[in-house]
Amino acid sequence: MRIAIVSDIHGNRQALEAVLDQIAAAECDAIWCLGDLVGYGADPDVCVELVREHAEICLAGNHDLAVIGALSIDDFSDAAHQAAEWTRATISAETRAFLETLEPADETQAVALYHASPRDPVWEYVLSPLQAELGFEVQSRRIAIVGHTHVALAFHRFEGADTTGETRHADETLDLSTGHWLVNPGSVGQPRDGDARAAWMELDTEAWTAAYRRVEYDIDGAAMAIRGARLPETLAERLRFGQ
Ligand code: ZN
Fold first, then answer.
1. pLDDT tens, 66-77?
2. pTM above 0.90, yes or no
3. Which of 7, 37, 41, 101 has the maximal Cβ count within 10 Å?
4. Residue 203 Cα to ligand 1 middle (Å)
């Protein structure tokens, strides 16, 4: 099965639509979403509606949980805090009801899915080989897929070797057939790895490969929508830089 993995959409309608078009063109069999459908961007309702329509699996991210009041926003940065409050006041009852059904992990598939990490599915940012290694000890499958950092990267450990990992670029393909893996597709709606294009990943559970994908989208449109909603200017500005 070829599965499109999307994560960290953050209310960016322009990015999500571009990614869904590319996924449709790639004729993937299913779409799985790793959470953070809302927060930061100006179109939370549309993004939730699109994910509901297209994704077979959807996790909850920390921003989704914050918006429904299941997680405190005290630890959020200023901009994230403001965006969470704006989103909470803006979303429809239907969007809210859907977000309330989501969980931050799904361990029922051939790969383990977590919004953030195997150790802490809601909050841990896995950016180092040590964190990945600690995750390998607790993840319920040989391969884990996580979002949350907004950085396309992969860590792996082969039998008898140390854990290593690095950021990954568009059209790189991982051979997942052996070893332990912790893989992050990057972010649809707010990339932070220096590549401003929307990120997603194509996972093949027969060949056991994962290919990193990036797609251009209407960044100006997404930034204008953020300004129109009177969300913090930094949230509009950073999209151009992928930071
Ligand atoms: Zn996120």
1. 999 999 988 899
2. yes
3. 37
4. 20
